[in-house]
Amino acid sequence: MTGTDITAPWPDTAFPADPYPGARPSCSFLHTDGRTHPLTADPSAPSGWRVDGRCLDDVLAAPGAPRLAGRVPLLAYGSNACPSKISWMRGARGLTGPVVVLRVRTEGLAAVWAAGRRVVDDQRPATLAALDGAVEEHAVWLVAPEQFAALDAVEGRDADPPRYRLARVATGTVSLRNGTGVLDRPWAYLAPGTPTGDARTDRRPLLVDGAPVRCAEVGQAGATTLLGEPGPDGLDADTDDGVPVPEQWPARVFVYGSLMPGQRAFGMLRAHASGVLPQPVVLPGGGIADTGHDYPALTLDSGDGVPGWVVELADPVSALAELDAYEGPEYTRVRVVVEDGAVCWAWVWTAARDGHVPLARGWAGR
Q: Which residue has the higher pLDDT, 316 or 2?
């Protein structure tokens, strides 16, 4: 990381944008007002993260920004993880609000040099490609829906013809660097399926002697001298033509009470389930209690783990709307990470805990 001799939060000058792709922090961070604040993972916090000792959701809520449940994961494998670039987007492309960036580890994916050049400075940009055996360190933006307009402008998604397309990537594995959470099918800006027809704006991988060149192995100075031909990226990815909806990710829920298989409300959840059989799991570190009203309360700040089930959803947007109404105002829907690393939606108790009786064996074992 650049600028380790500067006390956090770090100014943008600690992470220069030139040469492309720029410098980036070696930790997850929150970027706001030209300052980079390091994040600390904490599964006991509703957001799963803390910044300056506070739950990240509380910090985001102060300026009225969406909390993490209102954001989607976007793989940032080029310059978008550079704080100076983020500030440039604020001034030049209208980016608003706090930016949340998490460090991730990718397997089977690689940032490689694109065939074309950047419009703003003639440097060679990165693009994403499938690459067997590749293991790299990258970042994931947790993007609020209103922030996609600025990102689309930066990536030329709406250009004619577009330089990049927005898609959900099924190739490879993207996992949080702290070892918790697999971010299945994140969004990313990829080379268009149809070439632009302009060598300068071609964002397909540059193939040199038939193979792409990884950005991790050749710097910008060497990249500008590369000679080759554009080729396919080899990715399994579905183009998203709209603005991503936070409820689309993940397409699964963790249930621990009346919505579990065999419990009284499972029929409502089953109507929204996909063809994948529910799986029994444990949510590490959480606790569950009997509220005395024939339903349990899940908390994340204490406990030895909560037994429950993971249920895959056929249409998470419609399912979550009905489930939110069923759970009611005493609960808040957040993303949690269960024991196998899957990220799931779960409903956490946020009302008073007076009279609650802890359930060591879970709701079914009470």
A: 316
